[in-house]
Amino acid sequence: MKITVIGCGYVGLVTGACLAELGHTVVCTDNDLSKIETLNRGGIPIYELHLDELVARHRQSGRLSFTGELGEAVRAGDTIFICVGTPPLESGDADLTAINRVAQLIAAEAQGPKLVIEKSTVPAQTGQQLKRALAIYSRNRGLHFDVASNPEFLREGTAVLDFMHPNRIVIGVEDEAAERQLREIYRPLLERQFQCPVHAGQCPREEAPTFVVTSINSAELIKHASNSFLALKISYANLLADLCERMDANVEEVTHAVGLDPRIGVEFLRPGLGFGGFCLPKDIQAFIALGKRAGVDMALLRTAEAINKHRIEHFLEQIRNALWVLKEKPVGVLGLSFKANTDDVRFSPAVELARRLLAEGAELRAYDPQAMEKVAPVLPDLQLAKDEYAAVSAAEALIIATEWPQFKCLDWERIFRSMARPLIFDTRNLLDPDQMATLGFEYYSVGRTRQTRRTSAL
Ligand code: UDX
Fold first, then answer.
1. Which of 8, 69, 197, 436 is the most exposed place for a label (fewest CB within 10 A)?
2. Hey, is 258 helix, strand or coil?
3. What is the pTM of this model?
């Protein structure tokens, strides 16, 4: 099928490249022409595992192309996926300016009927507004637009895997024609007729994804409800961590045993610096704002959000207590992206913690395996180190702020010798407390005052 993708960010690029992998002919566009230039030069403007290989393969196959001409892109596809950003407004509501602008442009540029699909995360009832806007903006052109919702459940760092191996595909439609068109688009995934780059063609045998067909409003709600529940679980884990610290218990043992209940699950119960990124923080805010507008008390989610926001204060207090004076103190920071395996620093708790420490006069030196380029314009005063060892040399404290797995394999004896004070704040419980104690570090982590021998591996 011929498909247009509007927006070449973390969602749009993965969506376009994976749809090309499924056999469709995809034209991607973005109003940031530098992104289009980078892509047409064979570059990738974001770091996402396997994306470069997919984009190169399908630029080569001719099934994937990029243009800065939105009109050309709109006319190329019978189906249009809107994958533009919906950042938070001051009020917490999602900013739908980009969605509205795209509706205007589609209505002006289309030369025939289109199925317009919201893949961007939007509040419930946005689809109804989008349908109305398309009709209004095309009122003198005699065109017909169908609208559908198809929320994404892609995690950064595993987005290609998540697209090719979803456990569910959710669509919100108004008629059977739209349902048929979306079933056709995803048929290779539903019939498991594809080879994905993650498994180099040896995809594991697994159940086909559940194809959930619902209304547009419900599909939009499913996305916000899913992300807000994930955020709730994380805040619950952080609540348990605080309790474990005061009760001399071990949060990893508690959350592991709690998560063994299949009704709960062990995923998303890792305590730490809290949830960040361009999704969870803004989606829980938008969901709270939606509930408020609908007259529903969203106190449960407001509390989850407040717990998350307090994580930065929690660690700042711990760091101040240990360092006494922060001003002019050399502090090393490992990790700036909002989570491991991504270069994305948007709403990163690690960046927020670094910002607060700089504001209090600490002399930071930071290193991140992927996010250095992206963080420079965000925190211009932050001194960036060439590697982990340069970041910690002569430091009076080291903060592990993102759970990059390579940090576990560093030469910790060398680090012990090179620090002015062997003091570590492991905000992501990345390291082993016993190993750190044996090496002689003053080691603070999350909810793990004591480590008991466990009967089975975590
Ligand atoms: C999330 C959702 O997982 C995904 O389904 C949705 O489509 C987009 O938003 P993403 O934002 O890429 O994906 O990252 P995710 O893996 O969910 O992590 C979000 C944040 O929560 C990160 O800052 C991570 O460090 C934190 N986190 C995650 C925890 O603090 N504890 C956990 O147990 C899991």
1. 69
2. helix
3. 0.94
